[in-house]
């Protein structure tokens, strides 16, 4: 199994997307943390869906991204949110 690195991810992004490109971010967080995730995408339409018991929320945002570095930086910012799961 190949270890994940930002260099590997950057290479994969650059080989599959032509920038600028529409990119879909998907995350799962506890309900009370959804506003922190939404702040990563100011001015963009963010869709949410609550889990069956309402404790967690899935968040999807489609954003036009200028580069692979911008995508990676968004994931790095998201990683600062406690308990976030990136899909």
From TrEMBL:
It comes from the Bacteria. This is DUF493 domain-containing protein.
